[in-house]
């Protein structure tokens, strides 16, 4: 056997993931707003790259800069018209502490109790521990807590659900004996045991339902709405609109930045060899960035247009008509890899006549038909049908998972009971037993 080394020459092609390719891949999965932020960072490092911010539709061109005095007047006018942000829960309570506590020591102790307050408005620690940390004597802890519970809205600084609801009932002056007994037996309320509740509250069913109606009017977490923040909806990246008998898709130009290359700066850059090399590299990067953004936009439009073409029924009829579609289906139609479609649809929003949706929402698996020749339906459409069936059911006779499976299967989709249970839990729909118990409590 000849063991001598042999040298051969051959050719092969391979894809090297360099820095520019990594940037191009990242830009594919950026939304318009993320792309704007990314391009701004690149423009800050490249003197030949200019990023024009998106121009909102219908916005007038910027006027000439006003004088300093006019600018200050305009700023003051805007500040006067701006709506004040609502105070947080803790700022709201600190303002009330100033009126309740005259003694600085009590005021400082109230701050310690405030630190133990949960966003829900409940006291999140044991009363004895908080009182010891605040320097309040153990025998006076209950009295000090009672002073704290005088704040508004009623129910704050409660230690449990029953106390929270009792404070609100006292504030409304509706803490009757049957209602107090109801608060002492909240586990029976959770079980919807009407007969047992009538016995412990010593009232008939009609009076009990009046007490239950009052209970539903109270807020179990009175502090939660202070910390709730309303986040504005993100503007869509694509816009689908009807065009005659079909649909047209376009990028949302009001959020899409434009990239320009300022090559006019290069001839004046002159200088030593290092300077010329730097200018050449930066100018090449700027031109590549412009081509990468154009490629990103073309790919996004191609993938979005294919999704719109396949989901025309959804655009016209809504979620019940969404069709099965996979990444491979779109990739083969567009002529790109599945990973490219996955990246493009990650984080992208599309505005349609049915509302704004993530592009990922249109990809759903197919459920086989119950009989040969029956058209497959998407899992999303079946989940929408289950939601409609539960919404329209008789609350006193809620549909079981078996009944829902039979009704959906009658429409041509072979659906098992365990699949209905899985979809129902994903939709946040309680079981038929829980829905029946809720109906008994509400009397519907």
Automatic annotation (TrEMBL):
A GO cellular component annotated for this chain's UniProt record is:
DNA-directed RNA polymerase complex
User: What molecular functions are annotated in GO for this chain?
Assistant: DNA binding; DNA-binding transcription activator activity; nucleotidyltransferase activity; sigma factor activity
Q: What are the RNA polymerase sigma factor 54 core-binding domain coordinates in residue numbering? A: 83-262
The record's Pfam families line, in alphabetical order, gives: Sigma54_AID, Sigma54_CBD, Sigma54_DBD
InterPro entries (UniProt xref): Lambda_DNA-bd_dom_sf, RNA_pol_sigma_54, RNA_pol_sigma_54_core-bd, RNA_pol_sigma_54_DNA-bd, RpoN_core-bd_sf
Highest taxon of source: Bacteria
Q: Name one GO biological process term.
A: DNA-templated transcription initiation
The protein's matches in PANTHER family, at most eight in alphabetical order, are given as: RNA POLYMERASE SIGMA-54 FACTOR
What function does this protein fulfil? Sigma factors are initiation factors that promote the attachment of RNA polymerase to specific initiation sites and are then released.
Q: Which family does it belong to?
A: Belongs to the sigma-54 factor family.
**What is the name attached to this protein's record?**
RNA polymerase sigma-54 factor
Q: What is the lineage of its organism?
A: Bacteria, Pseudomonadati, Pseudomonadota, Alphaproteobacteria, Rhodobacterales
Q: Which gene encodes it?
A: rpoN
């Amino acid at each position: 056997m000849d063991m001598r080394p042999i040298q051969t020459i051959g050719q092969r092609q391979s894809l090297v993931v360099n820095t520019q390719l990594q940037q191009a891949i990242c830009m594919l999965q950026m939304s318009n707003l993320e792309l704007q932020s990314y391009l701004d960072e690149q423009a800050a490092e490249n003197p030949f790259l200019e990023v024009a911010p998106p121009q909102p539709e219908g916005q007038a061109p910027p006027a000439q800069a006003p004088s300093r005095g006019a600018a200050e007047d305009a700023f003051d006018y805007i500040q006067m018209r701006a709506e004040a942000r609502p105070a947080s829960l803790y700022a709201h309570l600190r303002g009330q502490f100033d009126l309740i506590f005259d003694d600085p020591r009590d005021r400082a102790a109230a701050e310690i109790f405030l630190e133990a307050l949960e966003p829900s408005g409940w006291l999140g620690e044991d009363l004895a521990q908080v009182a010891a940390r605040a320097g309040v004597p153990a025998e006076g802890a209950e009295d000090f807590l009672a002073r704290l519970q005088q704040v508004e809205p009623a129910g704050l600084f409660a230690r449990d659900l029953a106390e929270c609801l009792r404070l609100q009932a006292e504030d409304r002056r509706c803490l009757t004996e049957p209602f107090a007994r109801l608060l002492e037996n909240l586990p029976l309320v959770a079980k919807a045991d009407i007969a047992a509740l009538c016995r412990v509250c010593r009232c008939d069913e009609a009076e009990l339902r009046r007490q239950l109606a009052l209970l539903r009017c109270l807020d179990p977490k009175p502090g939660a709405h202070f910390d709730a923040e309303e986040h504005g909806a993100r503007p869509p990246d694509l816009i689908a609109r009807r065009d005659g008998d079909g649909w047209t898709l376009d990028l949302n130009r009001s959020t899409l930045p434009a990239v320009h290359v300022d090559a006019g700066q290069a001839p004046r850059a002159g200088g030593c060899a290092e300077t010329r090399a730097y200018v050449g590299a930066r100018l090449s990067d700027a031109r590549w960035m412009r081509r990468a953004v154009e490629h990103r936009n073309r790919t996004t439009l191609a993938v979005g247009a294919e999704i719109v073409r396949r989901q025309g029924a959804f655009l016209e009829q809504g979620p019940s008509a969404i069709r099965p579609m996979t990444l491979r289906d779109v990739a083969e139609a567009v002529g790109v890899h599945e990973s490219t479609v996955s990246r493009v649809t990650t984080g992208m929003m599309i505005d349609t006549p049915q509302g704004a949706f993530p592009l990922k929402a249109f990809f759903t698996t197919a459920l086989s038909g119950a009989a040969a020749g029956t058209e497959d339906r998407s899992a999303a459409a079946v989940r929408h049908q289950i939601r409609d069936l539960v919404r329209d059911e008789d609350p006193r006779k809620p549909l079981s998972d078996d009944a829902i499976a039979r009704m959906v299967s009658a429409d041509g989709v072979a659906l098992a009971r365990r699949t209905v249970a899985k979809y129902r839990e994903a939709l946040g729909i309680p079981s038929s037993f829980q829905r029946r118990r809720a109906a008994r409590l509400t009397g519907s």
